[in-house]
Specification:
- The protein has helices at 2-21, 44-50, 108-116; strands at residues 25-27, 29-31, 37-39, 58-63, 68-78, 81-89, 96-105.
- The protein is of the alpha+beta class.
Length: 117
């Protein structure tokens, strides 16, 4: 029993640093560098007006049980965070709307790579 307890603690200690590296947090809003707010429900035109496109958007089919749509995902790096903003085509309004905003802290290696650009 002591061995099992010790093994569980050791496994948690080894896995924890790697799990934190990929941890993301979902949010309802994000602030642009000039202080504007991007919210769930904003249109793609509003997003691009507030936050110019930083990279080529990723397009894919989103089917997660709640949403089933053609999705567009924009990635932004603001200070020490990376944000991924996902838009879906609204069937009722026929426009792309923000449906998800997730962010994560960048690690030191990623920050150095960002600074060198």
């Amino acid at each position: 029993m002591k061995f099992f307890f010790f093994a569980a603690i050791m496994l948690a200690a080894v896995v924890q640093p790697y799990a934190a590296e990929f941890a993301v947090t979902q949010t309802m809003t994000m602030k642009t560098p000039d202080g504007q707010t991007i919210r769930i429900g904003d249109t793609e035109a509003s997003l691009l007006k507030k936050m110019p496109q930083s990279s080529k958007p990723r397009q894919y089919m989103l089917n997660n049980g709640k949403l089933n749509c053609g999705a567009t995902e924009y990635t932004y790096r603001i200070k020490t965070q990376e944000y991924k903003v996902t838009l879906c085509l609204s069937e009722s309004r026929r426009i792309n709307q923000v449906v998800r905003i997730v962010w994560r802290n960048l690690d030191a290696k990623e920050l150095l790579h960002t600074i060198k650009k």
